[in-house]
Amino acid sequence: MSDKIPNNVDLRSNRKLQRALEGWLPSYLEWWNEMGPEGFQQDLIYLRTAVSVDTDGWAQFDYVKMPDYRWGIFLAPHEKDRKITFGDNMGKDVWQEVPGEVRKELRRLIVTQGDTEPASVEQQRLLGKTAPSLYDLRNLFQVNVEEGRHLWAMVYLLMQHFGRDGREEAEDLLKRTSGNPDSPRILDAFNKPIDDWLAFFCFTTFTDRDGKFQLGALAESAFDPLAQTTRFMLTEEAHHMFVGETGVARVIQRTIDLMKTAPESDVKAAGGIPLELLQRYVNEWYSASLDLFGSEDSSNSATFFAAGLKGRWQEGKEGVYDDHKALTGSYRVEVPTEGGGFEDRDIPLRRAMNLLLRDSYVEDCQRVIKRWNRIFEKAGMSERMSLPSDKFNRIQGLYANMPFDLAGELLTQSEFEKKRDEWLPTQADLDYVQSLMVCCYELGEYASWIAPPRKGINGREEKFEYVKFVRS
């Protein structure tokens, strides 16, 4: 193993690559210290660090200063005699090197995925100052360092397989910054500000869940190093979604408790988050995350599928799909017409791969909503959370910038504006949530708007010291 870069890719046997990665390390650390979590770089955080790809014992837990975190390069175990499971090359051996005819497309996929990883760290860099508990503060930092490790995974692929072009792309990944008007991140959702913890929980629920499905599609790739890399990334990504989903669940639980105990059920007066405000956050972040799947009718998705670069969710799993070449068949969608109406259109299946992947994502999000709604059921309450229509509040695809309501009915622009404040966060909502964002760093204590977790990290007790502050 490299002393500086933990790995299971025998980095020491490739001195050129090792030097390139170790040469990139100072720039990465400079970026981390400038754009990573602000104000906590010298504190000791109880972090999980990947040390192998074994199912049991793949990670160790210990106190670490974030700049000293052992960012590493880990690929899932090589699958002997693995074959391509979809597209025009179905049945052939997977590739260990990049075929020249798909070099440009494959690099684009890796760069786009890689760009999301540091972007989310940048979006969340100030949240530590308003953490609702030490448990949550630690979880934020765990997400941050693992997003940093995922960036390393993509940089490894670029440097190992794309030569000078890959090294230049790796450098550019540290030049773009979230929300920068001159050099923004590639995807819109990763330029949105995350100024409060409710936004963070919604981001990690919905936007990181998009990451799950994008990584899952890349894990089917005929380019075996990419498939191995993303399969291991999914192991860590699961925790990010856990942080989001359970974070929202704890907000719901606290709000229910306050609805039952606060004078006149006044949740706001008791320092809680009203359910209708939470629903508006869900509407915003879910719709923004749908945009990450791209256009419903996409020639790029057809190219990626045909070449074997990016499959559907669980493409290689037996019994999920009947046709792995997708040369026939279509996907029917309702599309706007020039006259202002709508008509059904059949999109050839390969051109609808973004939609098929998005459908898998939507089903998973619906399962999340069901789990949240069980909290209301157990409390004997009739309130429920829901997802808006996939046409609502879109800025990408067929329904971009069109005034649909939550049910997917087209309104006039003026009708939409009249209802907007019922459906999406208002400035008053943002201001109120921001007023709740006061740090709570006492052992075992939690902010007024969120319930404690059901159990601690790695089996730790309720009052475990997840963060040891080092203050001069």
Explain the layout of strands and helices.
Elements: H1 15-35, E1 44-50, E2 59-65, H2 103-123, H3 134-161, H4 163-172, H5 197-218, H6 224-261, H7 275-290, H8 299-307, E3 330-336, E4 342-348, H9 353-378, H10 413-423, H11 427-436, E5 467-468
Antiparallel strand pairs: 1-2, 1-5, 3-4
In short:
By secondary structure, the chain is mainly alpha-helical. The chain has 11 helices and 5 strands, in the order αββαααααααββαααβ.
Shape: globular
| Major beta sheet summary | 3 strands, antiparallel
- How many beta-strand runs? 5
Question: How large, in whole angstroms, is the Cα Rg?
Answer: 23 Å
CATH architecture: Orthogonal Bundle
For CATH, the homologous superfamily is named as Ribonucleotide Reductase, subunit A
Oligomer: single chain
The helix content is 40-55%
- By CATH, the topology is Ribonucleotide Reductase, subunit A
Tally of separate domains: 1
**Proportion of β residues?**
5-15%
Total number of helices: 11
Which structural category fits the helices and strands?
mainly alpha
List the helices and strands in order.
HEEHHHHHHHEEHHHE
Q: For the largest sheet, list the strands in their spatial order.
A: 2-1-5
User: Under the CATH scheme, which class?
Assistant: Mainly Alpha
Low-confidence stretches: none
Q: What's the N-to-C terminus distance?
A: 36 Å
Average pLDDT taken over every residue:
95
